[in-house]
Amino acid sequence: MATPGPLTPGAPMDPSQPPVIEGFTPSVYSNTETFKEKFLRKTRENPMVPIGCLGTAAALTYGLYCFHRGQSQRSQLMMRTRIAAQGFTVAAILLGLATSALKSRS
Predict the structure, then answer these.
(1) Sequence-ordered list of residues with C-beta below 8 angstroms from that of 88, at least 6 positions apart, any chain
(2) Beta-carbon contacts of residue 76 (< 8 Å; ≥ 6 apart)
(3) Rg (CA), the chain
(4) What is the largest CA-CA distance in the chain?
(5) How far, in Å, CA of 101 to CA of 106, rounded?
(6) Secondary structure tally for the chain: helices H, strands E
(7) pTM above 0.85, yes or no
(8) What is the per-residue pLDDT for 50?
(9) pLDDT tens-digit profile of 36-53?
(10) Which runs of E-coded beta strand occur in 2-78?
(11) DSSP of 12-33
(12) 42 vs 64: CA distance, rounded Å
């Protein structure tokens, strides 16, 4: 049975940097984006997601306000509206994922 030779330690890995994998680029964008630039790019790519998020937040806020004021009927309506807005947002996310997957294929 052959015994392995002595291990030669390579350059120590820097934990603050991602590992280098040959042939793999972690980002398709060559420069780094700020949070604002990334948010604006993602909003332009799929504008329905932020609209759904704002609708969800608005329905939740108004529903809680109505609950606080004792308007239980309107509060219930707003909670149902919030669920519909959340469903719209999830559908927009899935549609955006499908569209980007189809774009990457062609």
Answers:
(1) 48, 52, 55
(2) none
(3) 24
(4) 82
(5) 9
(6) 3, 0
(7) no
(8) 93
(9) 998 899 899 888 999 999
(10) none
(11) PP-TTSPPP-TT--S-SSSS--
(12) 30
